[in-house]
Amino acid sequence: MLAGFSLLKPSIGSENRQKRPCRVVFFLVFSGLASVSHAQTVFFNDGPDADQSLPFSQAVRVNDLLFVSGQVGTDQSGALVDGGIGPESHQVMRNIRDIIHRRGLQMSDVVKCTVFLADVAQWGDFNKVYTSYFSRPYPARSALGANGLALGAALEVECIAAYPPTSK
Question: Any signal peptide, and if so, which residues (predicted)?
């Protein structure tokens, strides 16, 4: 049994219900494992706002995807900007933009964002800032309320960007 699926299934029309390997499941499982094991992975922790002492990478590239760690509204010195949701939102989006630019990408390459808000009542204020950094079609997005964000931040945003196909 693998993840709730039996690797054996009854033979159709068999009176004694003999079991035979389910080749499709084997193919799907092993082809998926092969693609993960050959993934090209590069870890990044550079730029003026990268803190080398934190236990995570600022961004990780896996094949043609760039995963950007959650960003809070800190400036280059690592201090949370003053002013609440508006200034923090702008700083978060600038931090994300700077990270993806260092990797050769644009904001239009962002395909997914996850937003953590300390106060969901500030959703509208965040959205005004967020939409000024993207244009249609917007990235897919999830959002949730969160208590106790790092440094007492009003929000945190993480993103996934996709490298455009290269011409051959």
Answer: none
CATH of 41-162 among 3.30.70.20, 3.20.20.80, 3.40.50.1370, 3.30.1330.40: 3.30.1330.40
Domain spans of the chain, in order of start:
8-37, 41-162
**CA–CA gap between residue 83 and residue 133 (Å, rounded):** 19
Under 8 Å between Cβ of 109 and 164: yes
Give 10-residue mean pLDDT values along the chain (168 residues): 41 44 38 60 79 82 97 93 97 97 97 98 97 97 95 97 83
Tokens 């790092």 -> residue? 150
Query: What are the Cα distances from residue 161, in Å, to 28, 38, 71, 158?
Result: 26, 20, 14, 10
